[in-house]
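Task: complex structure prediction.
Instruction: return structure tokens for all chains below.
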Amino acid sequence: MKTVIIGGIAGGLSAASQIKREDHGAQVVVLEKSGDVSYAACGMPYNLFYKDKPVEDLYAMSLEAIRKERGIDYRLHNEVVTIDPLRKEVTVVDHQLSREYRESYDYLVYATGNQPNRLTLPGFDDADVFYFKTLDDTRLVKSIIYEKSPSNVILIGSGYTNLELVDVLYNMKIKPVILEKSATILPSFAEEIRAKVLEKLEEKGIKLHTNVDITEKQGSVVRTTTRDFEAGMVVVSIGVRPNTALFSSAGGELGVGGAVKVDRFLRTNLPDVFAAGDCAEHYVRQLGRNGYMPLGPVANKQGRLAGSNIVNSNAMKEFYGIDQTAVFKFFDLTVATSGLSERQLQENGANYVKVYVDTSTRGAFPGGGTMRVLLLFEEGTGLLLGGQMIGQDVVAKRLDVLATGIYKQMTVFELAELDLSYSPLYSPVWDPLLIAANKAIKYV
Amino acid sequence: MKTVIIGGIAGGLSAASQIKREDHGAQVVVLEKSGDVSYAACGMPYNLFYKDKPVEDLYAMSLEAIRKERGIDYRLHNEVVTIDPLRKEVTVVDHQLSREYRESYDYLVYATGNQPNRLTLPGFDDADVFYFKTLDDTRLVKSIIYEKSPSNVILIGSGYTNLELVDVLYNMKIKPVILEKSATILPSFAEEIRAKVLEKLEEKGIKLHTNVDITEKQGSVVRTTTRDFEAGMVVVSIGVRPNTALFSSAGGELGVGGAVKVDRFLRTNLPDVFAAGDCAEHYVRQLGRNGYMPLGPVANKQGRLAGSNIVNSNAMKEFYGIDQTAVFKFFDLTVATSGLSERQLQENGANYVKVYVDTSTRGAFPGGGTMRVLLLFEEGTGLLLGGQMIGQDVVAKRLDVLATGIYKQMTVFELAELDLSYSPLYSPVWDPLLIAANKAIKYV
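Output:
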């Protein structure tokens, strides 16, 4: 059995590794068009901080280990240019050897990831405009930072990635200014969480301009309909779109958000072609349908399942889905969410209640801080629908309790009965989650 | 309606506060025999470290706030000496005014806590032998440490409290030696977790002697059947027993571990007498019966429920119980458990499987470490029965995911499907819990 995998970063390498894990004799060819093996993309902002830490430290493993330890035929600089689903083969350009060749497959995994949306305005193709998406982007940004020492930066867009960059660059003494087209930031968070992020921006003296309509860039000046901004570098992060051109050219069907349409087994409409990761749809458990939420863990999980389903084609398993859990760091704050957002609840016409509490994170002991916990739950039943948290100390892994509760369809009454770990070094005697739940049950 | 509460620390103050919260006009008298209001007992070891931090910093709130803000008639140095369940009154000695008086009640909450087991061997009544249980004990130990600067300490017993003290005292340059009667330490932990604690003791050069049979203490020398030990101070922590003398003298019935027998509503056999906290039994959900596990959170929860049931005597709620969750810090390690222990599983003849994994806690980023996750689950079904973790970084609040899963009767298959928060600053892309679950499903 021979599997060809297009794209070798998160989903692709996971699929390849799983096939070899379950069927040692299987032939697996990974065709990766860049010069980088699988890497931890979410770690890129933090690598900038360390001048002497090569970006290659973000590699999941070395090319040699992928080849020798895992037995995968992993080829860098090999770009697939067409898929022929009838002949079951792909055409590949090897950019290093400057040759084109064909590779046949029994199974194909499409794992091409996504790409940043680009600003198609005058001047935004300049060399000092960056899309912080790949390891190559990271190399470029890092070289600018350490070679040109810019004193300030314009960040266009205010999603997770740019907020993480704001944090990192500010701490590197590169003053950030954020330009956002919308009226607000972080639309998937409730305003009570968002408010804390805005407070932090203000505390740090970082300017956020919303409702900004950019017109062009001229040299170091970004012009908008109302005023000009100037900075030594510009980072644009205004959303992503799945890489699907190759797939759709071959007759592949697209779905939510223009991503590769997959069934619960991660099969596409093309025979024996699976898709995984940032190029594909992701099943959202609470909605009971596919959505599009490109994040590292889901890419890894989907890749692993696609690989497993290829090996076990007579006993395939459904992808169990996601609960839209996400987290990012913002200065001393951790910001995290799981489950449905308020916006999604409104879109679905849900009868929901929102409560939040502000609490300390661990009594009066060093290392503690404060935390806001926000719960979204169904009116009448108390079914937990979503949870968001922001604060110092342990937020991310406390949020996981809510993610677990959402997965298990827990009510706020049940949440209030949890026996959570307590020592004053880790928690107040009533954990913030219990305090929030005890408030919530009064409003069911 | 008048409620008298005997004992005003965790369960007692919680009950009092809840009554006033739900029925502002209710009369609540708290009779506390010591001179201290409710305090965070679990914080006592860590207070030792700070010479200038008064132990009163551990108070949950001030006497004035309890009286004025909460409207509770809280009386210090007032010891109840008899309960008359027929006349529904208690006899009280006010040690400050040296007078005895009677106080009638409609409802009584018995919340007297527990006391340390004592070593009844020659020499162990000396002034340099400490039982680290109350705020007064903490004052004594603290005065010895800062006035006499002992260079070493003998800790008798190796439970959580003594291990926390080992950590604190070692860091204060007071060299600890541990003497343990049993063959092993931490019997409620699996040997794979225990091994990590033992490794840490060895790494720090701290001597643990097991199977030790102490015969007497003479001056600074503790004699055993095999050899002598010498130290500037001795701390004994060999278990606790519930304070029940007053209750049983009044005809009260005792249950598991000699604690006050309570039904699910926290009622005792005496009419209109409830019990809560360290003096009472605690319902263990997984066993479906009462056990005895005196910890801060359960005392607070039981106190709150007892108070609520007194106010709502026609619509009482059952105590939802505990899952035996516990955590303690030991140097750079956090050690945590939830659910049934291996010993309990064996005692109950359960068909269980045990797996564990060693993982990193957050990829290659600063602040991470390693962690051992151990899962206990039912053979055949994969039902999660218990979870234990030890490691650096965020252990306590990760353990809470297992506590949540145990509460919701989750299987290891479900655990593997959780959508846990990921950013390289907080977790590897496969969270340690997912890695453990993915291993576990192979052994169901």
